[in-house]
């Protein structure tokens, strides 16, 4: 008997039913099973890379075939179990905060503890429960990992469709969720791909994008996207985007917040995703005053930490430049005029010039 035939021995349909129940017990809102046929995404990705839309994210161009060939990334992979975990904490403001330019807007996924560890741990527990049921099998868990086309896998496993904002949209849950994947050699029954695209004639995300980064349906020019500019970009934020960034100091959610499907978002029960240090409503001035030690201490275990203190100050300086004129804002910026980082100093000068431009006439000329 071949290995494959031996593998058929467990009742895979019954096993999959258990898997779905266990997934919910572990806090996932939805699971699906995809095959490993991702070839159709190869051309789309190649065109995007050729156009240079990935900016400085060189890792997007790496890994070759491993992206659309899960069996090359993890040899023996036959299925990918995809898992969705909603992240919006209860009772946090979203769009209202964007209208309060003295406050900092941090992408709502980044308010609490870093999700990577939590989701990987839960996926590994799921694999261990499967192992206890059927014996050893091959698996590997991924969360937001460069060589994994997670949205494509989620679409293939029936979790949702690609919205025009390029996010994976669930008809039941919008798009404010994390995705994780368990690559496995178990030939579980697959779910049908989510074929129907429900965007229809809606264009809300495209009109709402502050920097015009959605250059075509499902195509984001990362070099214009505020998430990229505030998180991935290491150097100076191009002048042409600084005003449009407003008070968004870490990421941007606009194209998701305006999406009609976002109304189906359900609050996450995970305590790990709850905002830390009142980051859901903090004032720009308050965050700008954090020393490097305070930054490191307060962002420990948070996704924000990876941008480092300099880029944190760079981003907040842009926010302060866009804030209404006030002596407090000017004082806060003045206090960082001699910051050791040239990057920070340049953004502070820009912000001070913006503040002066907005100052009451008497003071501006006085
Ligand atoms: S995240 Fe913001 S900047 Fe990026 S595409 Fe969406 S709306 Fe535009
Ligand atoms: S805002 Fe409209 S077009 Fe954009 S992703 Fe949502 S439904 Fe689709």
From TrEMBL:
The keyword Ligase does not apply. Its EC number is 1.17.99.6. The keyword tRNA processing applies. The active site is at 144 (proton donor). Residues 190-219 form the 4Fe-4S ferredoxin-type domain. Signal peptide: none annotated. Belongs to the QueG family. This is Epoxyqueuosine reductase. It comes from Halotalea alkalilenta. The lineage of its organism: Bacteria, Pseudomonadati, Pseudomonadota, Gammaproteobacteria, Oceanospirillales.
